[in-house]
Amino acid sequence: MAIGDIIKKIRNLRGLTQKELGVAIGFGERTADVRMAQYESGTRTPKDDAVLKLSEVLNVNAEHLTAPDLVGPTEIMHTLLHLDDSNQITFDEVEYVDENGKKLKHIGIYLNRGYMELYLEEWSNRKSELAAGEITEEEYMEWKINWPDTADMCGHAVPRKQWRKE
Q1: Which of 9, 53, 76, 127 has the most CB atoms around its CB within 10 Å?
Q2: What backbone torsions phi and psi does residue 103 show, to the nearest 5 degrees?
Q3: Cα 28 to Cα 20: distance, rounded to the nearest angstrom
């Protein structure tokens, strides 16, 4: 997702207008909404200092705003190929038979990166909690946009930032 789309999504989540957000990060009243519209449309890209201000005002991890735009299989594949350069990927093939008796195969990827399995397990836990109604969509979004500060390492740590509503 492009930075402009992320800004717009979180701005709407926070209930702010473009003008309110623009003023809050330091733009003048007359240009605040125009500048935010430019960021959201991709006409302009916020500089590093603006990204930091946006992250503070929107209460979101700055890295979430600047995450790479991996929207398609080609971009994702290039990222995986780069990880392969340092032997950080292992493949696993799983063969099975579907309900029609057809043999199928899935390729699984394991990321050999220290805490990666724990990160993925925690994400899986959040998705399961959401599906079971144990957390709300808003709580899930808070967990995502403020990760890793919201991570509890599957119960092995206290999150640096609270994301659950009490």
Answers
A1: 53
A2: -75, 130
A3: 10
Domains and CATH numbers, the chain: 3-65 (1.10.260.40), 73-111 (no CATH), 114-166 (no CATH)
CB 31 within 8 A of CB 73: no
Q: Which residues neighbour 118 within 8 Å (Cβ) at sequence distance 6 or greater? A: 153, 154, 156
Backbone angles phi, psi at 111, to 5 degrees: -100, 115
Helix axes 3-13, 137-145, angle to 10 degrees: 140
- Using CA of residue 16, residue 17, residue 18, residue 21, what is the dihedral sign? negative
State the residue for tokens 């991890």. Answer: 61
pLDDT over 90 (residue 72): no
Q: Are 150 and 61 in contact (CB under 8 A)?
A: no
